[in-house]
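Quick one, probably user error.
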């Protein structure tokens, strides 16, 4: 069985992000190079991303890598981002930081629970000071339900 190249997977993901951004940006007025509309920069930027990704796809197909993909970090980081959004909505900021840091720490096999807990506590304290005290935002620190 042939193993997919990490370069190929990343290039395909970036190409898909570029296509989605291009489709979304087409809803905005383009304007011209002299008088740019709100859609001009996103269209150009997403087109550049698509072109660079296509070049990387071709390069990775011409020179495939021999190593396999470690799916654990990708799954854990995507899970951490999802858990952050859900936990922030349902339980507040502090539990969300513990969820995202706890899951993200599991993406690295040698990162223990104690450093993750310390990092989550320090990050929660810093976020509390920044958002609640210094910026005066009303993000709930801890809550139960939406």
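Nope, works fine. Designed sequence:
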């Amino acid at each position: 069985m042939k193993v997919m190249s990490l370069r190929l997977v990343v290039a395909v993901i970036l190409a898909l992000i570029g296509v989605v951004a291009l489709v979304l940006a087409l809803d905005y007025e383009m304007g011209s190079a002299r008088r740019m509309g709100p859609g001009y920069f996103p269209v150009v930027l997403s087109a550049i991303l698509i072109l660079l990704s296509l070049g990387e796809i071709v390069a990775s197909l011409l020179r495939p890598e021999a190593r396999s993909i470690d799916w654990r970090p990708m799954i854990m980081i995507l899970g951490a981002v999802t858990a952050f959004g859900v936990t922030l909505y349902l339980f507040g900021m502090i539990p969300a930081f513990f969820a995202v840091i706890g899951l993200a720490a599991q993406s690295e096999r040698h990162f223990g629970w104690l450093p993750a807990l310390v990092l989550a506590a320090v990050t929660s304290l810093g976020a509390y000071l920044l958002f609640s005290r210094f910026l005066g935002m009303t993000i709930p620190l801890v809550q139960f339900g939406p």
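The radius of gyration is 21 Å.
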